[in-house]
Amino acid sequence: MKRTLKFSLAALLFLSITSCKKESASSSSNNPPTSCNQAPFRVGTTYTYSGGTPTTTSTITATKDTLIAGTTYFNMQGTSGTTTQRSYIAVDASGNVLQWVPSLGDVPANTMIYVKTGEAVNATWNYTFNGVSNPTLVKHKYTFTILSKSETFTLNGVTYSNGIKVRQLYQPEVSGISTGNIEFTTTYFCGLGTAVTTQGATVLRTLTGYTY
Question: What does the pLDDT look like over 84-108, one tens digit per residue?
Fold first, then answer.
């Protein structure tokens, strides 16, 4: 059970730094699309982040696309130090960013929307998944709230505006008893992607490099 809760936390944090939208892998242009994609990329696109205590550097690369239940997801591989994680991300017809999480332990395979681009500030949505671990009932609840749609961020001399800041709250329960809340705040930008992820006053990740 402890391993499963750690996995749920890792999945939440990993997605916090990997929002994306599918672009053609055959495109020959070196410039990202100019339309409002929450993280424009193609196979080979790489994001570099720095942050945490002590400060560490991590990279996330779009490796390939995968068809899951009729939806095309990109397989995002993230590396920080000696740790490697994968995440499956897609964007629906409304521009919302989705993550598909395979089953592990008591957590069933599931899909969650991490960014609802058409919703207003203070919009909230949530998901609850139940499982059993030896043979304890475990509940995993995720709540997402849009905090702002007017954030700004500068990378390599280019300023991005109208960023969407989303709070992601993870509330695990074991046999009906809360085991503590875990909260992240992530900001997403059109034409760039996920720029900043924080936990309280701690900046966990800040985007320092983006190669399309």
Answer: 677 888 888 788 888 888 876 666 7
Q: Where in the chain are the domains?
A: 2-211
The pairs formed by 130-138 with CB atoms below 8 angstroms and a separation of 24 or more are 131/4, 131/105, 131/106, 131/107, 132/106, 133/1, 133/4, 133/105, 133/106, 134/1, 136/1, 136/174, 136/175, 137/174, 137/175, 137/176, 138/1, 138/4, 138/5, 138/106, 138/172, 138/173, 138/174
Q: Which two tokens stand for residue 81?
A: 């130090």
Place of tokens 């598909």: 100
Using CA atoms in the order 48, 51, 54, 60, what is the torsion angle rounded to 10 degrees?
A: -30
Q: Which residues contact 189 (CB under 8 A, 6 or more apart)?
A: 38, 151, 153, 160, 161, 162, 163, 164, 195
Measure the CA–CA gap between 85 and 90, rounded to whole angstroms. Answer: 17
**What is the CATH number that goes with domain 2-211?**
2.40.360
Tokens describing residue 4: 């499963």
Place of tokens 């329960």: 173
Residue carrying the six token digits 């990329």: 41
| pTM passes above 0.85 | no
